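During the first year of the project, the team set up a workflow for recording each protein of interest as an amino acid sequence followed immediately by a discrete structure-token representation. This format lets reviewers and collaborators read both layers of information side by side without switching files. As required by the reporting guidelines, we include two representative entries from the current panel. The first entry is reproduced here exactly as it appears in our internal archive.
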Amino acid sequence: MTADNRGQGKLCKHRSRARAVWFSAILASSLPAFAQDGRESFGVQTELSIYFRNGTDGARHDPDWPIAKRAQERTGVRLEPVTFPESGDTARDHLQSLISSDTFPDILGGGGLREVFNSLGPQGALQPLDTLIAQHTPNIATYLEANKDALAGARAHDGKLYHIPVIDPAPTGPVWVIRQDWLSRLDLPPPNTVAELEAVLTAFRDGDPDGNGLRDDVPLAMTMPGRLDHLLVLWDGRGSGSGLAADFRMEQGRITHGYTTEAFRTGVRHLAQWAREGLIDLAPAADQPWGMSLIDPAALGAEGMPTGLQVLAPPASVTGYRVGPPRRSTLRDEGWGIGFRNPNPEATIRYFDFWFSPEGAALANFGIEGVQYDRISGEAVLRGVEKLSPADIETQMRTIGARISRGYPPDPAFDRAILPPAGRKAVDLYRAGGFWQRPLPPISLRPADQRFYDLKAPAIRNFMRERLTAWVSGESDVDDEWRAYQAELIALGLPDLLKILNTAYRQQGCSCAPSPETRISPPPEAAEDPTIANPPITLNIHFRDYSGRNTYDEDTPVERQAAIRTGIALRNVPLKRAEKPADAINMFLTSGDMPDIFGGNNIEDAIRYWGVQGAFLPLDSLIADHAPHLNHFLQSRPDLVAGARALDGQLYHVPNFPDGAYSLGYFIRQDWLDTLGLDVPQTVDELHDVLLAFRNDDPNGNGEQDEIPFFARLQSELLHLVTLWDARNSGSTEFFDFYIEDGVIRHGAAEDNYRRAIRNLALWYREGLIDPALINAPGSDRDTILQSNLGGMTHDWFGSTAAYNTIIGEEIPGFKLRPIAPPQSPSGRRIEERQRPQIFPHGWAISHTNPHPIETIRYFDYWFSPEGRRLANFGVDGVHYDLIDGAPVFRPEILNGPSSVVDLLLKDGAQIPRGFPQDFAYEAQWMNDIALEGIRLYEDGAFLADPLPHLALNESELRIYLRYWRPLREYMAERSMDWIAGIGDVDTEWDTYIEELNDRGLNLLLTALNAAYQRRECSCEGAE
């Protein structure tokens, strides 16, 4: 990652342009929202009571404000403030008191009330507004539709909207500034990286840049101590996710806290060193000269600021990222709602709507035309503010009732107009560079959770802020106190608080599941005649089978039947030299002779890449217009197709969709348990005791200690045992893959539970509970171990493992190999992480030179029809199966043939890696009752961990993945197996191991994968 890579906050901003267009449109309009005499809209003068506390200064509503008077003239509505109750100081206290009285206000409004709105609303104190908005407010309805992404955080936990929020279309945040005159005097360029920044700060300290002959200059001044943690990004740490010091933050689709990470500790260590060396001052005197700081753009050029300040792009971090502080939230904590006693909610909501009309919006933002502003060439230009600071202008506007915390649409033109030129330049630079971090989104909590948050969050933030200041100032050392610090955070309730916040965020955020309003096309009726082409046509296909051969068998029973039924035959186009799909596509493009269809095993990444380049046709429109079965399938499962899309959002291939989630499970020798008088183990400790008994108590009865307590065909299965100690090895079918938890992609081999698991597996290996072949060879010889009556327990596929009860049951009297539930971990969890993927990287695509794209997509659709799906899964009716009571049933010669059912089907053209939906029933038919019993056991117990979602990586993310992942995975596996075998010690070598993981690119991989996951979540939202 180079220093020019931009930072956070660019995802899911597809609605920002709609906001800008909307605002331009309403200001350009000359039509008022109400009739020419506003009072005609209400018929009579209407008086409503209001409880109002302005967010900035706490001011109450004043009906004599010039803005209030003008609004009354235009709408006929007068707002009378209620008397604040004497009990309590907060709005919540006041409103709770008013609820029980007869004076509960008709309108509640002001700043800092969103949590109050969303708490009291579901309790019945406020009226829900969605229906009122839809029926009576054309301006608000249009505005909220253009701001759907921000509106989610304004809703209460019951999904309803109880207040009209204030949504800022162009929020800003702090920026880096530097004394350009000091740089010029010392002949230094602006710092571009953290290393260059340290060199500049050192020069500012030693070089007397202000020329007064004293060493009194502050290189980096924290003029606002709450922004100290914004410096942590220089070492890839993260501080607060908002303007509130030590606040929670949004990171890779999940709410977390930056103060708990190793990168935070590293950043604190460096900041403490800077403080010791005099490069940073946490509390500079007001008259002390300083060279760099973080300030708001509005403060540039303000009185008291140093001369010669210049805005600076954030210096690149140690890994090359340029990340600035978080910007303010798009959703402001301001607005107003309608009280439950309001006698005229329709008139009230129309009054609210006035402030979103062109006339009302201009009044709320700029004041009265001809008094506070003039309209010149269609633009509002403020009067008499040339010599005022932005803060003074805002204060002046509030004194007349403009720019207060009512529900209205802030105009970005106002914010820009009051900025000094240097401030505008700073905003333009940080917006263009995408430097501001995405802020912590507003979260609506249930009342009990809100009370827990109010109790715990301030104490946690205060503790964190105190420790950060103490560590950086040198009062104590972060490394000495780190473990105690983490323990105190747990004691203060941080894990519980994070769980509450993430649960609430997921509930209010985008989901890939179809919403109740989503219209899914009904499944098409089965067509009697699936003919697509008459006369028949032939399409060329380049196809890669599961063995990697570049060939498509044109003469299989399944291919012949499909050609007869559809009128489309496929002709194989081989390519001998290409080993990878991407190479094959490149060779075809170079030759100028692309096949009509490109498909087969593991082609997805190549199709997505070359699809964006124009080599393949985008399929969405073709599917919607010509593929009803496929269209219905994809609409019903947008979560699946999201990960198959290319970076441009288009779908370029029809994937292969597996069926059935459960594939592997634990099996144990029930007859051995019976022989030793033992129960099925329910916990990891009980499992240890059972395996120890298998090892020592001669359950096979041959008088020798030859039993192998745990064995597995694949070495990878040994490391899946880490789940027994709450660790994770993988979130997919891939060995040592990443996994997802609480909305963030992680890797289990870098977490403390993994260390505990490896420590215990090493103990089990020393005790002889694990087959040495799992360390010294690719895996155990399952056939030999079971046929020799040596194996006690394994983890393997349900179908093939359960079959041993039939295969060798007669050879070993009483042989019972039975499935059991995953034993409970120390925390009480039963975890099975091995499962089928949600989508295979197989399928097929239509090339850009295909002369029959409509016929081809209809051919693809055939395989999603009931007939085509049966053909793809079971083979040919009357040859491989018979249709009995509407269901395909394999013939005896297929089930009892000389080869496996799967091998026979593949040979005859079924179950090949074309684009089709698998049917688990084909597999269930050749499973015995014991295997099906195991699957039901795992289904009923819901043991599966959340699967790693299917991700589409962009070009830069794919480069990171290809560069780092394979060697990193090999290193993880090597160290893990060494520790289990007793080569080294996991506890003494753990810190070095973690450092090595990051040196080998783990953090870069996690950042890339989480970015892809965040895009996937947004694409799911768009699909709805």
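The second entry, processed by the same pipeline in the following quarter, appears below.
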Amino acid sequence: MDRVLLLCVILFLVRCCNVAISADATIPNIATDQSALLALKFGISHPDPVHNILASNWSTNTSVCSWIGVTCGSKHHRVIALNLSYMGFEGTIPPQIGNLSFLVSLRLTNNSFHGSVPNELSRLYRLKNLDFGFNNFSGEIPSSLGLLSKLRDLFLSGNRFTGAIPQSLSNMSSLERIGLAFNGFSGYIPSSLFNISTLQDIDLGDNKLSGPMPSILFNMPSLQKIDLYSNELSGRLPTDTFDHLPNLQWLQISHNRFYGGLPSTLFSSIQLQYLSVRANNFTGRVPPTIGNLTMLRTLYLAENNFAGGIPNEIGYLQNLEKLNIGDNHFSGPIPCEVFNISTLQIIVMPLNNLSGPLPSNLGLFLPKLQWLLLGGNLLNGTIPSSISNASQLTHLDLPTNSFSGFIPNTIGYLGLLQHLNLEINNLTIGSPEMNSLLSSLSNCKYLEILSFTENPLNAILPNSIGNLSTSLQEILMGGCNIKGSIFQDIGNLSSLTSLDLGNNELVGPIPTSLGKLGMLQGLYLDYNRLQGPIPSNLCHLKSLFELYLGGNEIVGQIPGCINNLASLRYLHLGSSKLTSTVPLSLWKLTDLLEVDLSSNSLIGPLSLELGNLKVLRNLDLSNNRLSGDIPMTIGSLKDLHNLSLAGNQLEGSIPKSFGDLVSLELLDVSGNNLSGEIPKSLEALIYLKYLNVSFNRLRGEIPTKGPFVNFSAASFMSNDALCGAPELKVLPCKRDASRSKKSRIRHILTFLLPAVGLTLILVAATLVLISKKRQKKSTDSVDLSPLAPWRRVSHQELLRATEGFNPNKLIGEGSFGSVYKATFLDDMVAHVADFGIAKLLGDEDLIKRTMTLATIGYMAPEYGSEGIVSARGDVYSYGILLMETFTRKKPIDDMFVEEMNLKRWVEESLVVSIVKIIDASLLGDERYDAATMDTVSSIMGLALDCCVDSPEERINTRSIPIALNKIKSKFLQDLQRTA
């Protein structure tokens, strides 16, 4: 029996031993933790291998518990915490992470881990803290995380998670803090999340959550912080919203779509320290009960529609540090109580309707104030000199108000001042005070921005401006009625990025010392009275982004080194006195966005390299003297919005490539010498809103599609060969021009040839009869008054020399007269043309009637309409001859059709520019161009006086040579001055 008993005991012990051995083989231990961590190690990397600490530290030769970032428990010697935060790692989280079964805390904050969160994390049932914040994790949060019932802190902010917030998170019954901000979560906030009675902090800011806030959220006494910043939440806040949130300390619901008034119960949350409702659509007044929030440190009500006055009770908030109520509709004065809160660091109230003066003791009770921003209101009065007592002030912004009086010199006592913005007020300062103020501001060693823009300072710019802080980045004094010149000392301000002295009364040259400001990005000196050339030193400004020098008296050339300004995007040199050609180097600045060279005296052709400016948006070269063809390469400027080449001497046709300017909104090529047709390709410019091709020599049909359906006659004026719709005030188009012309000629000849034949017979018979009568009897005739200056010949001499216009002396006949050979007594042989009109008259005022048809284009209108012939008709013809001589256009040229004639063309074009009509061969030496154009302009004026429709209003024949002599004398004097 004993032996049997002993055997049973032995067998039992063996069995227990085997069970123990088997159990030891399956229970996880530190080796399991090691294996899981090594899997993590092999799945991650570092952009700089030198800083990959895990590569050498996590070694199987050392204990896991000594590895960096690993913490083991003292009881079981297992891994209980893993913290790899802020180490710059990249990679993914392997599923083996779920084998760290004793893990309590897992922190991987601020790395570059990516991919999805593994489901295996749900096996870490001991986990209390999970922080994957600010990585690149993506996808949806696995619903299995809801199994982590002991989790207290869940931080997944700053990743790229999407989808809805899982309902299963409500199973985390111990959760105290949840942070899911800065992701892409969408949909409603799950109400079940607020069934967690232990929840204290909730941060869901900067997502795409929508809908109203769950009502249950406001029935959680444990809540201390609610942050729903920057979502798409909407609706009203219920009136009883804050009845059951006695411990609420932080409420951030800014940048949503909430509307209505703030619930009165909000102002019963006396534990509140941070309240931000900015950038919503809240309305109504702020109640006096806001004074109950005596623990409040931050109050942001900005960017809503609050109205009414600022309650005086804000003065009760004696712990307030930051106050921002800007961009609302608050009105009335700023309560003095606000300026008595000694804890205030920031006062921001711009863009309201606040009025009245600032308290005279402003600054005395604000020892911690750093920012005072009150711009965009209706404040008036003076700026209190006591402001200097706010010795911590760094930002003083009072722009766009109605402050007046002198700028106090005491501002210079603010030694920490960085931004001083007083622009757009009525502040003034005399020249001595200006010098004193700038000298005082030289004490502000941290000053970065100084803006007095659009104040009537009425002062001379002192050289002390060069003594300001070298940390100064912006000087903005445009539109301040500043006089004097810009001193070279301004080159001392080595940190300047923006200098605006535009729209003043500055004179003198542009200082060359500006070339030393290597950090300058914006230079605005436009609309002054600066003289001299553009200094080539400006080409040293490698960072220059905007250059505005237009509206001055700048002369000379655009510097050829301008292509050194590689950062330049905006170039405005318009309304100056620049001459010469546009340098080719300009077109090498391929990143230019705007170029304005208008209203100068630039000459020469446009370069094909203009097409290099691929991102150009606005190009204005109008009112210069540019010539030649428009380069077709302009068509490659796909981003061009506005193009003006008006008022130049450009020739040729409008390039078809203009149809490629797909972004074009404005096109003005008026006042040039362009010819040809308007390209049909322009119909493709769907954004074109303004077109002007007036005062050119364009012909053909005006396009009818695309943007052309919206243009009026004003777009096409004085292009008399254009045709199109009647509302455009041009000729109707002849659809089959060649066939129509042949048909018209055939029709005319059918009736004209018999009439011409009959007329010739009658004329021949008449001449024979006249010849016979003249042989028998010498008749008295009226003297002819020719215009030839070399010899005056009487009518009697003509009769004698031509033997009474003997047919034997007839040399030839034309449509409008005959030519005879005449031999005078001095053996001079002349060819005499008889137009059959002048011989009818003798006295200048004598009028006779004739059936002679007027010579087309040359004879006065009264010949053709009434058959009235007078010497004043010769004046009209002389005016036409003057126009033909100086324009090189005949009255019967093809361009003159229907109601357009030589006289009308000269009359209309002369209003725009004499260059439009003058014969180009008359322009030679550039020095004499002005004198030539002035002379031709005077002659054309005389010609138009000769061609007045009413004979009685025309200039007298005796006055013509007098006028010509005066024009000649002036021309000679002009030549002597320019020689």
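For the second entry, the following points were noted during internal review. The domain at 778-834 is CATH 3.30.200.20 (Phosphorylase Kinase; domain 1). The longest strand covers residues 818-823. Both points are flagged for discussion at the upcoming steering committee meeting.
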